[in-house]
């Protein structure tokens, strides 16, 4: 292709994409490397996008949004046994909370490595074992005492999570069974479904409701017949309009069962819109952008992936 045409194409690209373009061949690099570029610097977000593209075919590195560099991959680093580098900073969405600990998202690097392994294919037994650990189901059962008044009784919390990649998207299904003691009284805790929505249940009335977290207003760009009113019932279904999360909660008179389907997105940088919505990043232009999806689409994608797996495996 003539150099003049390459320059025209590059003129329509953002700087991060132009730098990625220079990696295609020597001719392109020479054509696009000129003194005027020396004064054009990538900002933090753009550099993360650039790094993500540069190592897109390498499973031995991952992009860190704390130091704006890449780090080596360790197969011992999994959601259950995270090996954080020295530059790591504790994220707000990872604060330990006994009511939502099972709903803590995996780290961005774990999501990206799983997607990359599946796209490129594990190159050896170590990578296959690492992929298996990244997607391994989790189970947690714990008894939580109602401190500082333990006389009210303890609460049983059973949680499970199942990760699945469907059409290049990392999906998670969380299930939570919350069982309070028969004689428990007082305000029931709020079960967090995502960074925007939660489920509250009313023991006396045997009803559930979906509410907003931190008083943020409802984004009603994605509507359902019940989206404009706060309702209470023994079963609720909801799709969060601010992130790709669907939830279902049911109160059977003795316990609450909540299922949450979350879409963590495709391969991308730590500042991709899908990821920023899920972690509750409220910086300008990030997670407050309305999601363009159908009601219940995450749940539908997850269940379609399950059906496909069963079809591939065949009858046992």
UniProtKB/TrEMBL annotation:
The species this protein belongs to is: Fusarium duplospermum
- Asked whether the UniProt record includes Signal among its keywords, one would answer yes
Extent of the signal sequence: 1-17
- Protein's name in the database: F-box domain-containing protein
Question: Which UniProt key words apply to this protein?
Answer: Signal
């Amino acid at each position: 292709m003539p150099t003049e045409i390459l320059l025209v194409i590059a003129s329509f690209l953002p700087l991060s994409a132009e730098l990625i373009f220079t990696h295609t061949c020597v001719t392109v690099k020479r054509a696009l490397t000129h003194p005027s570029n020396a004064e054009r610097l990538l900002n933090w977000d753009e550099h993360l996008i650039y790094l993500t593209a540069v190592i897109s075919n390498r499973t031995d590195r991952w992009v860190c949004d704390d130091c704006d560099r890449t780090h080596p991959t360790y197969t011992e680093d999994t959601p259950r046994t995270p090996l954080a580098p020295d530059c790591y900073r504790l994220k707000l969405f990872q604060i330990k909370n006994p009511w939502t600990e099972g709903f803590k998202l995996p780290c961005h690097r774990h999501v990206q490595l799983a997607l990359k392994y599946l796209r490129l294919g594990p190159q050896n037994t170590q990578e296959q074992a690492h992929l298996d650990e990244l997607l391994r189901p989790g189970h947690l059962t714990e008894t939580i005492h109602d401190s500082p008044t333990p006389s009210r009784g303890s609460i049983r919390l059973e949680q499970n999570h199942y990760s699945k990649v469907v059409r290049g998207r990392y999906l998670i299904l969380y299930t939570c069974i919350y069982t309070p003691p028969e004689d428990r009284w007082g305000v029931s805790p709020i079960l967090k479904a995502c960074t925007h929505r939660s489920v509250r249940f009313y023991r006396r009335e045997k009803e559930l409701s979906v509410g907003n977290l931190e008083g943020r207003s409802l984004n009603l760009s994605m509507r359902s017949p019940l989206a404009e009113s706060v309702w209470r019932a023994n079963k609720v279904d909801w799709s969060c309009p601010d992130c790709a999360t669907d939830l279902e909660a049911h109160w059977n008179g003795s316990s609450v069962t909540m299922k949450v389907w979350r879409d963590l997105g495709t391969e991308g940088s730590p500042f991709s819109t899908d990821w920023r919505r899920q972690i509750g990043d409220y910086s300008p232009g990030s997670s407050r952008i309305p999601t363009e999806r159908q009601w219940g689409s995450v749940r539908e994608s997850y269940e379609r992936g399950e059906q496909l797996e069963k079809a591939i495996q065949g009858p046992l």
